[in-house]
Write a structure and sequence with these properties.
Layout lengths: L11 H6 L6 E4 L2 E4 L6 H18 L5 E4 L3 E3 L9 E2 L3 E4 L11 E3 L4 E5 L5 H15 L3 E6 L4 E8 L2 E8 L3 E3 L7 E3 H9 L4
Parallel strand pairs: 4-7, 8-9
Antiparallel strand pairs: 1-2, 3-6, 4-5, 6-8, 9-10, 10-11, 12-13
Helix pairs in contact: 2-4
Length: 193
């Protein structure tokens, strides 16, 4: 994932002014160009994970959203971070932007699905940004290895556990929610290019 624009510190206001047909994220004032489209694997896993979360949350106060959906993490620090996680869960409705354009503050759960161009960005830059912002649980999903690195915030630092395709993952921030990775990755086994 490449940085672009220039060396200026960007804010959410700058982000909202860009109308160039491209997707961007801003982390700590640095603009990052996002991939133009998602692969079959990415879409398949994203839809299944979002469906499992939505099924569990039906009738409950928490809400699940999928990209593109703006998440402003650092409003109190110059409003220089806006990301678009692949999947997010928000339980505190006061975090919904009154303008209807996303969330202001840390979601309870963020899920990012790796692609070749985003691996470093998701594993390092976003990991640090989510940890710093207080995202209570952050999953990195690797469709190639069919595994999930689930990180839970503990005393301001993430503690990570790895789960594989034949396992279930307890969502720590959603009491009683269990995600079946076999179902999440099932759509990949029959795919051929």
């Amino acid at each position: 994932m490449e940085t672009a624009r220039n060396d200026k510190y960007y804010t959410y206001a700058d982000y909202c002014a860009w109308d160039d047909g491209e997707r961007w994220e801003v982390i700590d004032g640095v603009a990052y160009a996002m991939s133009p489209g998602a692969s079959f694997e990415h879409q398949s896993v994203s839809m299944e994970l979002a469906w499992q979360l939505r099924s569990f949350l039906h009738g409950k106060p928490c809400r699940v959203f999928t990209a593109p959906f703006d998440v402003r993490l650092s409003v109190n620090e110059g409003d220089g971070t806006v990301v678009q996680p692949d999947i997010l869960v928000v339980c505190d409705h006061t975090k919904f932007d009154p303008s209807g354009k996303g969330v202001i503050g840390a979601p309870d759960l963020v899920i990012e699905i790796l692609s070749p161009s985003t691996q470093r960005h998701d594993r390092l830059i976003k990991f640090k940004a989510y940890q710093h912002a207080g995202v209570r649980e952050y999953w990195i999903v690797d469709t190639e290895s069919k595994m999930v690195a689930a990180s839970v915030l503990s005393n301001g630092k993430y503690v990570t556990h790895t789960y594989f395709e034949d396992e279930t993952v307890p969502v720590q921030v959603l009491d009683g929610c269990i995600i079946n990775l076999g179902d999440a990755f099932a759509g990949l086994s029959g795919y051929s290019e």
